[in-house]
Amino acid sequence: MSVFQTYEQNNAAYASDFDKGALPMPPAKHVAIVTCMDARVEPASQLGINLGDAHVIRNAGGRAQDAVRNLVISQRLLGTREILVFHHTDCGMQTFKTEQLRGIVKDAAPGDSAVVNAVDKFDSFLEFTDVEGSVTEDVVFLKNHPLILAETTVTGWVYDVKTGKISRVV
Q1: d(CA 28, CA 30)
Q2: Cα 1 to Cα 137: distance, rounded to the nearest angstrom
Q3: pTM > 0.85: yes or no
Q4: CB atoms < 10 A from the CB of 35, how many?
Q5: What letter does residue 154 receive in the DSSP assignment?
Q6: Alpha-carbon distance 9 to 143, whole Å?
């Protein structure tokens, strides 16, 4: 059985007693969480977030620079006033440099100028070596970004994938 078939069956079971269809669009806690797409990171269960409580924005590394478009929409149209940046230990973003990844992509498509041009447009893949440093960098970035509302509370956290615990960095 394919993964999509399993998910389709799981959804049928979920939808059979679904009773949350009347939840409002804006998140009840007025919070947006920026976190990593890593499969070991699951903010709802790890933080006790219920359906309808928060916007959860996920990308590689949980980088704020990739989340700004979403945060503008979350704040300006849906009323969020707090942002939590969550990075995590043992992150894949610590395992490469931008030039290495560019090389991997180009090597997989030899002679394909469209691939070369597309991957070269990335100034950086936003990798990092220091998890706490990347959290601090992202919090400062958001606090100073002209499109993020000035009154926004922005905090930064690290989730430990080995223990399940979070710790505040900034």
Answers
A1: 6
A2: 43
A3: yes
A4: 25
A5: E
A6: 43
Rounded CA gap, 53 and 118, in Å? 37
**How many other CB atoms sit within 10 Å of the CB of residue 154?**
22
Give 62-76 pLDDT, tens digit per residue: 999 999 999 999 999
3-state DSSP assignment of residue 73? helix
Domains and CATH numbers, the chain: 3-91+128-168 (3.40.1050.10)
Residues 6+ apart with CB under 8 A from 120: 102
Q: What is the mean pLDDT of the chain?
A: 98
Tokens 């041009």 belong to residue? 117
Binding site members for Zn(2+):
36, 38, 88, 91
What pLDDT was estimated at residue 77? 98
In which residue ranges of the chain is pLDDT below 70? none
**Can you say which residues are annotated as belonging to the binding site?**
36, 38, 88, 91
Name the one residue in this structure whose structure tokens are 């690290």.
158
